[in-house]
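During the reporting period the student researcher (J.K.) took over the structure-prediction task from the postdoctoral fellow and processed the backlog of single-chain submissions. One of the processed entries is reproduced below for the supervisory committee.
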Amino acid sequence: MMDKSNTTSENDFILKGFSNWPHLEIILFVVILIFYLMTLIGNLFIIILSYLDSHLHTPMYFFLSNLSALDLCYTTSSIPQLLFNLWGPDKTISYSGCMIQLYFVLALGSTECVLLVVMSYDRYAAVCKPLHYTVIMHPRFCHLLAVASWVSGFTDSALHSLLTFWVPLCGHRQVDHFFCEVPALLQLACVDTHANQMTLLVTSSIFVLIPLILILTSYGAIARAVLRMQSTTGRQKVFGTCGAHLMVVSLFFIPAMCIYLQPPTENSQDQGKFIALFYTVVTPSLNPLIYTLRNKDVREAVKRLVGGE
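J.K. obtained the following structure tokens:
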């Protein structure tokens, strides 16, 4: 038994998660499970509906389906492990499991940053270049933009993952987070990690600040175009689609900036856990509601699907 225990302790990581608040673990388990089920149902609904209804075969819903697939993968890369750790006393994750989780969480998060920029460009083209929209957002170009989003995110993650894998770890293997992420793992390093931290800061700026600037620039142009519109109906339609996207952008980028672009403090680790919990659990579950709740196209697509038209 001792040999088995030693082997486990040497090869596995312990995800401390919310073990400092044991009285919250059962409550968190129930709440997170509910939000996770909402995420699965809501995002699968968007993907299936966009596929089945030919009226939704547009660039906007193509990118929205990509976002839904991304949110499904993103939550599934960390939430099942979190639920397992919250349910019982076992908080361990294998070394290979930790590294796989690290890679996919970072890859999918980076991909979402780029995809949200692509979606804002689609809205810009639709509002500011309506006569040329079908030419600009050609299906082949849309597929290229989607592929570029996924490739850039996974490439960025490969860089960080490799740099983190090469850092020698020593002492305890208690990761002070509920999933394996770069900053938490670097705290276990035996060597100076300033180069890793600077690389993380630079790439976080590239994948967070630059996309945010591009999105705000797109919406600045959209706002000017809306102000020139004479039709009240046209304005309402633009506010409906663009407002939903801006809300999703806010829910994703504001927590990300709080995590990756602020200097570390004594309380930042605990705060970071709850902020990370928000954008890994709550945000992906709200995205389908934000895009469908007041969306006339989706309501009509559901009627057609149910009515068999």
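The committee noted the following: The first helix runs from residue 2 to 11.
J.K. will present the remaining backlog at the next meeting.
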